[in-house]
Design a protein that fits this description.
Layout: H1 5-23, H2 28-31, H3 35-41, E1 49-53, H4 59-66, E2 70-75, H5 78-87, E3 92-95, E4 109-114, H6 124-134, E5 135-146, H7 153-164, H8 182-192, E6 195-208, H9 210-220, H10 223-229, H11 233-247, E7 257-269
Parallel strand pairs: 1-2, 1-4, 2-3, 4-5
Antiparallel strand pairs: 5-7, 6-7
Helix pairs in contact: 1-5, 7-11, 9-10
Length: 270
């Protein structure tokens, strides 16, 4: 089977509409760990007008507002936009697909941030000309993405549990592209015309109760949740049992799981 960009984008949009209501109290507790390093890298400070690409319910937008930025956000998912608008009325949020274009003027932003958005785009290279157009000369664009599952057991433990249970891929799950590496990000930025492309890695520790993390991933992710919840009840029980066994290696005396983690941070200057 080959990668189908239209099928991938449709799967993402349909399923994130369903997961939006649970995201802030669920998976967002992990995705927030890269927000401040990303904002630091693009110079988010008082007076900066910032575009939050793939803004979701406004996790990065909230922190940018706290730093004194003027914030606009865009996301393909209507439900995410509704949540962001209701919780952050001082920012402006619009629905749209960054791969198709942006409803903003040329040179409109001092900084552009995409926190954990690249792997949710079927063709991120199509988004880059649009992002460059709205970024003012001298402005910085920053992108983050999770490093491979082996470096992120908080996520990698789930496909590992699925594999241990021998669970098949459910119908409707799209074929994925290969995981982007550092060279991919360097090429993505430089091919778009950005200068001083820099790719580094953010390292962190994520602490969470194992039960809470299982619930968060099942209710507020897309691909992983589908891989588990579309199995038979018996197979789901096997996956959960495998997860319970695997997570023990990270649990401390307090009962909390302490997961090491790593993410890619790619930044370029227009």
């Amino acid at each position: 089977m080959t990668f189908d960009s239209a099928a991938f984008d449709a799967f993402e949009r349909t399923n994130w509409e369903k997961a939006a209501a649970s995201y802030l109290d669920g998976f967002a507790r992990l995705s927030v760990v890269t927000v401040d390093p990303l904002l630091d890298a693009i110079g988010a400070s008082p007076g900066v007008r910032l575009l939050d690409v793939g803004c979701g319910p406004g996790v990065l937008s909230r922190r940018a507002l706290e730093r004194g930025c003027a914030v606009d956000g865009i996301d393909v998912t209507d439900s995410m936009i509704e949540i962001a608008r209701s919780s952050l009325p001082s920012a402006t949020f619009v629905q749209g697909d960054v791969q198709a274009g942006l409803p903003f003027g040329d040179n409109a932003f001092h900084a552009v941030a995409g926190n954990m958005v690249v792997h949710h785009l079927s063709q991120p290279e199509r988004a880059m000309p649009h992002l460059l157009r709205v970024l003012a000369p001298g402005g910085k664009l920053g992108l983050t993405m999770w490093d491979p599952p082996a470096d992120n057991p908080a996520q990698g433990i789930f496909p590992e549990a699925v594999a241990l249970a021998g669970a098949p891929t459910p119908p409707g799950v799209p074929v994925l592209k290969g995981r982007p590496d550092d060279a991919f990000f360097t090429e993505l930025l430089t091919a778009a015309g950005l200068r001083e492309a820099d790719v580094t890695h953010i390292h962190f520790e994520f602490v969470v109760a194992p039960e809470q993390w299982w619930d968060a991933v099942i209710t507020s992710t897309v691909l992983t949740a589908t891989m588990i919840t579309q199995q038979t009840a018996a197979v789901q029980q096997e996956i959960r049992a495998a997860y319970d066994g695997l997570v023990r290696r990270y649990v401390d005396d307090s009962g909390q799981a302490r997961f090491p983690g790593s993410a890619t941070l790619a930044v370029g200057t227009r």
